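**Backbone shape codes:**
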Amino acid sequence: MKKTVKSRRAAAIGRDLMLAPLVAMMRLPLMAADARKGQSWGVEATQAVNEKTVAMVEGAFAAQLALLQSASRFWPEVFSGRTPSLFNGIAVERSISAALKPASRAVKANFRRLSTKS
């Protein structure tokens, strides 16, 4: 994969994750309204916790899968004369990117959803 494609993907993930504080601020009035109704675990709070849990599990699974794929390419990379991705940092880069992608999607989707509620 070319560096420009990787850079664009990383920038897109970073851009989406930068929406997280804004999403949190957009959620606060909805959660406060639930609390005023006496629902400490209202719809928005429950959805927030659920989405974060799902994104964390998906991210951990994706990171492990990316590392497993890099490990499976170890010997083919060695025999082809290339430095194995496990040694040159590419495996870690792929793993981090894979781990952040689910959180990025969730934040972006929440921003869209909460923007329409305002």
In short: The mean pLDDT is 91. Residues 3-117 form one domain. The first helix runs from residue 3 to 17.
